[in-house]
Design goal:
The structure is a single chain. The chain is an alpha+beta fold and 525 residues long. It folds into three domains: 5-129, Rossmann fold, CATH 3.40.50.2300; 149-300, 2-Layer Sandwich (Beta-Lactamase); 316-517, Nucleotide cyclase, GGDEF domain (Alpha-Beta Plaits), CATH 3.30.70.1230. It has 18 helices and 19 strands. The strands form three sheets. Strands 12, 13, 14, 15, 16, 17, 18 and 19 form an eight-stranded mixed beta sheet that branches. Strands 8-7-6-11-10-9 form a six-stranded antiparallel beta sheet. A five-stranded parallel beta sheet has the order 2-1-3-4-5, with helices on both faces. A hairpin with a 2-residue loop joins β15 (433-450) and β16. α5 runs parallel beside α11 (277-311) and α15 packs antiparallel against α16 (403-427). The longest helix is centred in the first third of the chain and has 40 residues, at 109-148. The radius of gyration is 40 Å and the shape is elongated.
């Protein structure tokens, strides 16, 4: 247990020497002041555990000193014992000034010892509760920052370093980032001016020659009471820092998650003052929080990276669905109203028979690139493309407002873009056209395929109808089902093309051709 420090305040030197002698027998560390002003200064500098104050002093008396002690937020719970020769006369004023207890002069050793011991015990209980509250508040604050940081790690690490510095009375609190074979400065709090100049932005190899390196390798807290002595005769940035300023104690605690060191937090005290077991445990708790936050950010970045990779092979909406919480449920299958658009090229078969394979592939790449940009721009979900054919649906997995109109807008934009490309192809002798079929209705959507190869697709008559309309569409024609035409007639110019006999349908199907849009296109978002 740490030796308690008692500040004795009396303007008579003989009385101070007597108090020192009496308290020393109980093992207390005694500091003295001969005036109220000196006492306030020592309270601020030395942080005593208890005050023994004589009431009658010139200038600031014991009552006034006690009142000032009580008005300060930092010392309002500091135990104060007033010493007086007249207990009855001074007791009321002493209570009003905020004293905790009284000792009558001349002071008796046994009485003084009992009263001091009792008040120190109460203070210890209060300090323990206050420290526990401070720790829980700090840990709660770090958790709050983790919850609100939106997977940004720096705010979390700064919160950890700031609270560790405050609760452990430390300086130069640094969190180091672990690299494959080295470590690098990540965040720092309350560092000395020379620190940045000495450490710089370079990497330090992980090895037993540095304290932070040892924490990496040993995967446990490392405490060095005197880093100047530890690095005596050594070279390097860590050794240079150890020689700046006073003798220092250093604590290095690794940030570990799943037996992997993600970083190290190091704290320094500008004195040879070892960190207590309680402080080491607190820093370990902070290190665990930081490690969890780092692991969460790494997981988030991995998921985002996988999502980006998936987006190269899947529709962006499907890639996002696969990596979302509700994705598994939706992939199992669900029913929803969608609008389906089938697009393909006219004359492609004849072109492929006569052109070189490299030419065919070049045309398809340009075609897919141009049409793909428009699909994404209009929030369509590309189910698949096969050669010159593409199937796109709207309103799943993400809802799309007025999905019928959105599909028509996309088809008109595709037709316009295709006409620009076709004029360049015609100069090379490629005679190609573009046709689209659009239908709307309910479909069952979800995962389709087999173990090892799945697609996200739609099944239903609406898919078949859109495909059949696409097959009937002439070059430059966008054919709409009757339900699509009814949904977009206020926004698109359409003309009836009559009833079409479509494969798989027992009765003729009314169809309409989309000529142009009446209103300016307004994309979602």
């Amino acid at each position: 247990m740490t030796t308690a420090t008692i500040l004795a305040v009396d303007d008579t030197p003989q009385n101070l020497r007597l108090l020192e002698a009496l308290l020393a027998t109980d093992g207390y560390n005694v500091i003295t002041a001969t005036s109220g002003e000196d006492a306030l200064r020592l309270v601020s500098e030395r942080h005593p555990d208890l005050l023994l104050i004589d009431i009658l002093m010139p200038g600031m008396d014991g009552y006034e000193l006690c009142r000032r002690i009580r008005t300060s937020e930092e010392t309002r719970f500091l135990p104060v014992v007033l010493m007086t020769a007249s207990m009855d006369q001074d007791k009321a004023r002493a209570l009003e000034s905020g004293a905790d207890d009284f000792v009558q002069k001349p002071v008796l050793q046994h009485e003084l010892s009992v009263r001091v011991r009792s008040l120190l015990r109460v203070k210890r209980y209060h300090d323990d509760l206050q420290h526990a509250l401070d720790r829980q508040t700090a840990i709660g604050d770090v958790l709050r920052v983790i919850g609100s940081s939106a997977f940004q790690i720096e705010p979390v690490l700064h919160a950890v370093a700031r609270h560790a510095a405050r609760l452990c009375h430390a300086q130069n609190v640094v969190i180091w980032r672990t690299l494959p074979n080295a470590y690098r400065l990540w965040v720092a709090e309350d560092v000395i001016p020379e620190f940045s100049r000495i450490m710089g932005d370079g990497d330090t190899l992980i090895g037993s020659d540095t304290i932070v390196g040892r924490a990496h390798l040993e995967k446990r807290p490392v405490i060095v009471p005197d880093i100047r002595e530890y690095y005596r005769g050594a070279d390097g940035a860590a050794a240079e820092i150890s020689r700046v300023g006073e003798v220092r104690t250093l604590l290095a605690v690794p940030l570990i998650r799943d037996d992997r060191v993600l970083g190290v937090i190091s704290l320094i005290r500008n004195a040879s003052d070892p960190f207590t077991n309680e402080e080491v445990a607190l820093v370990r708790a902070f290190a665990d929080q930081a490690a969890i936050a780092i692991a969460n950010v790494e997981l988030f970045e991995t998921v985002e990276r996988q999502r980006e990779e998936l987006s190269r092979f899947l529709s962006p909406q499907v890639a996002a669905l696969i990596t979302s919480e509700q994705g598994a449920k939706m992939l199992e299958g669900h029913r929803r109203q969608i609008t389906v658009a089938f697009c393909d090229l006219r004359g492609f078969t004849a072109f492929a028979e006569t052109a070189e394979p490299e030419e065919v592939l070049g045309v398809l790449r340009d075609y897919h690139r141009a049409m793909g940009e428009l699909i994404v721009k209009h929030q369509g979900t590309l189910e698949h493309f096969a050669g010159d054919g593409m199937m796109v649906f709207f309103n799943d997995p993400l809802p799309v407002e007025r999905h019928e109109l959105q599909a028509v807008r996309m088809a008109c934009a595709m037709r316009e873009r295709f006409d620009e490309m076709a004029s360049a192809w015609q100069k090379r002798g490629y005679e190609l056209g573009f046709g689209v079929g659009i239908a709307t209705g309910y479909a069952t959507l979800g995962r389709i395929g087999f173990e090892g190869r799945y697609d996200y697709g739609a099944v239903g008559n609406v898919v078949i109808l859109a495909q059949r309309l696409s097959a009937e569409a002439k070059a430059g024609q966008i054919l709409l089902s009757q339900r699509v035409q009814a949904a977009v007639e206020a926004d698109a110019e359409t003309t009836p093309v009559g009833d079409l006999s479509l494969k798989g349908f027992t009765r003729p199907v009314p169809a309409f051709a989309a000529e142009s849009l009446k209103t300016l296109e307004r994309l979602p978002g």
